[in-house]
Amino acid sequence: MDQTRGRLDCGLEGIVEDVSDDRFRGIRIFDIGDLTRPVQVGTVQTCRGSHTHSVVTADDERIIVYNSGTSRIREEEELEGCIDESPGDYRTALFRIDVIEIPVDNPAGARIVHSPAVFADPEDGTLAGLWRGGDHGDETQESRPTDECHDITVFPELGIAAGACSGNGILFDISDPLNPQRMDEVVDQGFAYWHSATFNNDATKVLFTDEWGGGGMPRCRAFDPLDWGADAIYDIVDGQLEFRSYFKMPAPQTEQENCVAHNGSVVPVPGRDIFVQAWYQGGISVIDFTDSSNPVEIAYFDRGPIDAEHMIGGGYWSAYWYQGKIYGTEIVRGLDVLSLTPSEFLSENEIAAAALADQGSLFNPQQQLKYDWPADPAVARAYLDQLARSDEVSVSFTADLDTALSRTESALQEGSGDEELAARLESLAAVLESGDDGITTRRQAALAETLGGIAARLR
């Protein structure tokens, strides 16, 4: 919570005083054991409130959260240690994130255990060591200094996090969750405000979004720069961010449609890196960034402007994939639920395989989990479609494997074993050859592994 009018007691009357013991800015903790009656069981007051927060780790003993405050610093008379010095004093509440520990058995004892100055210069400790604000040269826009993160997306299994931090995109090592360390940072003259970050499934890439103008203005007109309010895609090479490309929705929008990149998530199609992206009134894009240097829109949904003559803020604030559907939060109408349909860019088998990805019982776009796919004929067919689409397998191999998978589907449905069919799948897996590029090699290896897993199910 960033707002200065929030109250500890959740009262509706607000707070107008500059300093008040009743003000609340920070993180509230709720017990949701009974979903119909959530109960507040803890609070953590912070110097800058909480615009977003990310659950880094959770077990039976404690939950570790990274908090990102973006609002003004409160008075020290209200909360000790809230010092507003920019940059100067090393004790300033700027240039930091909050590391919060929540004891599971005593959530009322939650507290900030570390406030690392992750934006400080690693050589001399200067706090304003990253982007200091202002424009980036002729015909560029002004952007805010890097003294905050809007979003921090964590990938706990791989010990890495990506911060969309106002004037910079940042890569963090979170192998020690209580002590995040900056690995690399990048700046971009086209970005006004680094807003969110999403890794691909093996964290070899990260896609950052630029929320130009806070999302309240049209930035997808035919004459707008393609790197303003867009996505920037980076490969992660030896712990460093290497720029590859921009993506911006290809359909020009009108003056009456607020439109910039906003929140999205990975669509777990095995063998490909696919992202579903909200663009406010620009609608929703589904982007293939398997080739980091050449991202392509492969599906979209665009309802058009809310009003044909007047600018009225609205559109999709987010678009998230979960368990086979896309959930779009439309600011004016509410929640839209969408399905992907097969096309020349995305097959029915790939859509079916994405729905089989293990996403668990909860979805959190700021805590990415590594997706796994079952040894299922639909997953094998998805890889086969990709290899056939790029002419990496012969027509005869495709036909033979298709026949074998059809028989497999019948056998699995009947619950019957088939040693001969299992051996046939293993023999087809064995003839897969390495391709000429990394993507083909990985797809062939994944297909062979999936066929081996299906063969084991048939025995």
Structural summary, described in words:
It is built from five helices and 21 strands. The mean pLDDT is 91. It has helices at residues 348-356, 377-389, 395-414, 419-430, 438-458; strands spanning 26-31, 39-45, 52-58, 62-68, 98-103, 111-114, 151-155, 160-165, 168-173, 181-186, 194-199, 205-210, 231-237, 240-247, 264-267, 274-278, 284-288, 296-301, 316-322, 325-330, 334-338. Strands 3-4-5-6 form a four-stranded antiparallel sheet, with no helix packed on it. A hairpin with a 5-residue loop joins β16 (274-278) and β17 (284-288). The radius of gyration is 24 Å and the shape is globular. The longest helix is centred in the last third of the chain and has 21 residues, at 438-458. The termini are far apart. It is α+β, with helices and mostly antiparallel strands and 459 residues long.
Spans of at least 5 consecutive residues with low confidence: none
Total number of beta strands: 21
Characterize the overall form.
globular
N- to C-terminal distance: 55 Å
What value does the Rg take, in angstroms? Answer: 24 Å
Strand content: 25-35%
Strand order of the largest sheet: 3-4-5-6
The run of helices and strands is EEEEEEEEEEEEEEEEEEEEEHHHHH
Output the structural class: alpha+beta
Biggest β-sheet description: 4 strands, antiparallel
Helix content: 10-25%
Counted by DSSP, the helix tally is 5
Kindly report the average pLDDT value.
91
